[in-house]
Write a structure and sequence with these properties.
Distance between the termini: 50 Å
Helix content: 10-25%
Number of helices: 7
Structural class: alpha+beta
Largest sheet: 5 strands, antiparallel
Number of strands: 13
Strand content: 25-35%
Shape: elongated
Order of helices and strands: EHEHEEEHHHEEEHEEEHEE
Amino acid sequence: MQNESKILIKVKSPKVWEKFKDFHYKDFNLVGIVSECELVQLASTNKTTCTILCSYDETDLWGCVKELSIFLGKDGIIMSNNVNLTGYSGCCYFIYYLGDDIREEDCEIEDEDDEDDDEDIFDKMKEWNIVDFLNLLKCSLNKKEKEVLTDCGIEVIRKRFYEIVYDVKIPEIIVIRHTAIGDRIQNIENLQPDSILKLFLPKSSRSNLELISDKGSIGELPSEISKKIKNLVISKKINYKITIVDLVKLSKRNKYAKEPILSIKLEYSKISW
C-alpha cells in the first residue's frame, strides 16, 4: 500500500519560525528546505506557511504533528493527511492541530471524473492549502481554536473558512462594470457625487462585489479586485470609504452610448478591536 503524506504549517507571524531552531523529528524534510536550520531562516522572510511532503505512515505522522504542535503552541496551526492510494478514490487520514487538541479524522475523497485515476486525485490535493482542507472536513472550532485561527488570518464566514489578507494592492481608481444591467441605469441617474455607497456580496459566493446606493445596485467591481477584497468585506474586519471620482450618467452621454460611466476610489483600514 502506497502512503503519501502532506503536512501544512501556518503561523501568525514569520518570527514564529524561530521557535524551530531545536526541532527534530526522524527524517523530517521540507520541500525546498534541507534542514531545520533553514526552516528557522524563514523568520527573515514574509512567509507564514510551509509545506512538507513525506511518506510517513499514520503513526509517524501523528508523532510529527504532535512534536510540531508543542513548538507552535498558540502561534500556529497544522493540517496533515496520509493518503492510501487504492482504486479510484483516495482514502485520507487527517491529523490536525488548530491551537488546542490534536484531532484525527478519516475521509474518503472520490474524483468527479471517473476517467482520472487515483494518482490524479492526490495530485489535485497537493495543490490544496490549509483552508481547502478545513472546508473539506467542515471543522468545528472551540473558542481557543477560533482565536488561534484569527491570529493566523483565517476566519469562518457563512459557515466556510476563508483566509483574510489585509495587505492587498488595488488600483487607486476603480472603474465600475456592468452599469447598464437591470435598474442600474435609473439608479445611477438618481446618483449624486456625494452619495453614500456600500459594497454588497450577492448570495452566490462566486459573484463579484456589487456597488449599491440608497436606490439599489449601480454596478460591480471588476472580478480581479472583488477576488482580492471580497473576504475582507464579508468578514466585517475593515472600515472602508467609497468616493465617486467620475460620474457620467447615460442621459448626459451621446446617443450611441449604452451605459453610464462610474469610477470610484476605495479606501479601507483594518478594524482594531
